[in-house]
Amino acid sequence: MRHCIYPGTFDPITCGHLDVLSRAARLFDRVTVAIADNPGKEPLFSAKERLAMVLPNVAAFPNVTATIFGGLLVDFAREQKADAIMRGLRALSDFEFEFNMALMNRHLQPMIETIFVMPNEQFSYTSSSLVKQVARYGGQVGHFVPPNVAEALRESFSR
Predict the structure, then answer these.
(1) Domain range spanning residue 31?
(2) Residue 36 is part of a domain; what is its CATH number?
(3) Catalytic choice (41, 81, 107, 159)
């Protein structure tokens, strides 16, 4: 049974993330969405809040689960008995960072492959950071995030 980890901060999860996830779900028997608990990144939402936003959006995929992890991704992947790590590349600017990360992960755990996929072009400019910035100033983000996430952003920035 082929299993991949789809890691990220998902602060918050976007339609682009879900597009990459749908590709992973078609390619692998099992996919684990791994939400990084990295307070150093100063996320808007806690790891538990991000998990709560992710869960209803992965329910449509019978072979997908979601969880929170801390520490090295490759250690988590090994503990989960994963074969691969799935990463989305939106633009060329993502490549250098992701390439270096994949090489380091390969050095640490040679048996775990990193696979890159591109999201649908309509999501190529969407990022969690941009979505948060638009939402912070009252812009509509419903085209970029699932409805439950748009609501969470509205609530967060209306305080």
Answers:
(1) 3-124
(2) 3.40.50.620
(3) 41
Q: What are phi and psi of 126, to 5 degrees?
A: -90, 130
pTM as predicted: 0.94
Residues of the chain with pLDDT under 70: none
> pLDDT tens across 73-91, in order?
999 999 999 999 999 988 7
Q: Which position among 17, 30, 50, 87 bears the catalytic label?
A: 17
Beta strand 64-69 pairing with 84-88: unpaired
Q: Cβ(51)–Cβ(37) under 8 Å?
A: no
Counting the structural domains of the chain, the total is: 1
The one catalytic residue among 30, 87, 128, 132: 128
Q: Catalytic: which of 3, 22, 78, 90?
A: 90
User: Is residue 90 annotated as a catalytic residue, yes or no?
Assistant: yes
Residue 151 lies in a domain: no
Whether 17 sits among the annotated catalytic residues: the reply is: yes
In angstroms, the CA 101 to CA 105 distance is 6
